[in-house]
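Re: the request from the purification team.
They wanted to know what the chain is likely to look like in 3D before they choose a buffer screen. I agreed to run a prediction and write the result into the notebook, where they can find it.
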Amino acid sequence: MAATQAEVEALRAELDETNRGVLALYAELDAQADNLRQATELKSRFLAYMSHEFRTPIGAIQSIARILQDQVDGPLTEEQQKQVRFIQTTSAEFADMVNDLLDLAKVEAGRIDVSPAWFEMVDLFSALRGMFKPVITNPDVMLIFEEPQNVPKLFSDDRKLAQILRNFISNALKFTQHGEIRVSARRISDTAVQFAVADTGIGIAPEFHHAIFQDYSQIDSPIQKRLRGTGLGLSLSKRLAEILGGDVAMESEPQKGSTFFVTIPISVVAAPSPAAAERSSR
């Protein structure tokens, strides 16, 4: 009887020690999670601050370049015009990088809200067509917007959807030297619509498929080495799609082109961001 009692006491002591270890582990995990949240918040604040600070000089550079391009103060030589166009192109790329960083900081900080409204796909495609018309300088590439078929009015945030499609189209233009880029929309169920941006570009090797929507992911190719970018466009597109209640996907084969998809609900359920929820609870 005494031996049994001693064994029970030993088991109880061992259990108590295990419980203390588990509690200590939980406390350590909580502390690490809190440190991670603080680090993420600091990173988001830094990105947002630096993005805002960069915008002023970028705007000044773009304004001066426009004045030079318009030859307000006199004609430019052919070489000077070439240099001004280079400044315009570079500053536009820099502005895109800064915008991506700022948007990423807002998403990570939970400060992007969904502002849904009813809109027609025809209107969205028309706006995108007009936006990219002056950008397409390669006569060997055609940008085609298919007429939306069986796509009803959407109740969603058209600005965020347009930003996703702009990222897809911009990437397609970078990596397509010949052929076409085709933008389409189709209803895939009673509740969802899928958009596709298909190109006839260089394609993406299978080993890069898993990482294509990750932060700072870039394709290892001769064309990529000539292009500047943060590698954030596709990652940002994925996060924006998730905010709209949808998701992104891609299909690609080297030398045969790529197709990027975004699927969103016909009617989005606008949930408040964490920041908005915190403000409303005060």
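For the purification team: Confidence is low (pLDDT under 50) at residues 223-229, 272-282.
Please add any questions underneath this entry.
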